[in-house]
Amino acid sequence: MFIYILRTADNKLYIGHSSNLARRTEDHSNSLGAKFIKDHGRFELVYSEKFESRAEAMKREKQLKGWTRAKKEALVIGDFKLLKKL
Predict the structure, then answer these.
(1) What is the rounded average pLDDT of the residues 71-78?
(2) What's the CATH code of the domain at 76?
(3) Alpha-carbon distance 27 to 62, whole Å?
(4) Residue 33: alpha-carbon gap to chain centroid
């Protein structure tokens, strides 16, 4: 199970989870994914994490969705020092 972050063409971040990350990103590309992605056009996969269970992935997804934009951006770029400060 994975959680992932997509960056849309208009620089919005979308967070989701899936058991098959490659298939899910392809679904998003073919407008079969979330309405949010359909509304915001092209996207790039900018971050992902793998989990052993769906419950763990959903817990992490919920946590990330509660973070500020700055904290999400620090995670995406891998700046763990900044992430701790935020």
Answers:
(1) 95
(2) 3.40.1440.10
(3) 22
(4) 13
The pair of structure tokens assigned to 31 is 């407008």
Tell me the CA distances in angstroms from 54 to 29, 41, 51, one per residue in order.
23, 27, 7
Per the structure, the complete domain to which residue 56 belongs is given by 2-85
Centroid of chain to Cα 18: 10
Domain total of the chain:
1
Q: What is the Cα 31 distance to its own chain's centre? A: 17
Structure tokens at 8: 């849309």
The H-or-E segment that residue 50 falls in is strand 43-50
Query: What pLDDT, in 10s, does the model give residues 27-73?
Result: 777 777 666 776 767 888 999 999 999 999 999 999 999 999 999 99
What pLDDT shows up at residue 38? 66
The angle subtended at Cα 55 by Cα 52 and Cα 79, nearest 5°, is: 70
The tokens for 74 are 């620090």
pTM above threshold 0.85: yes
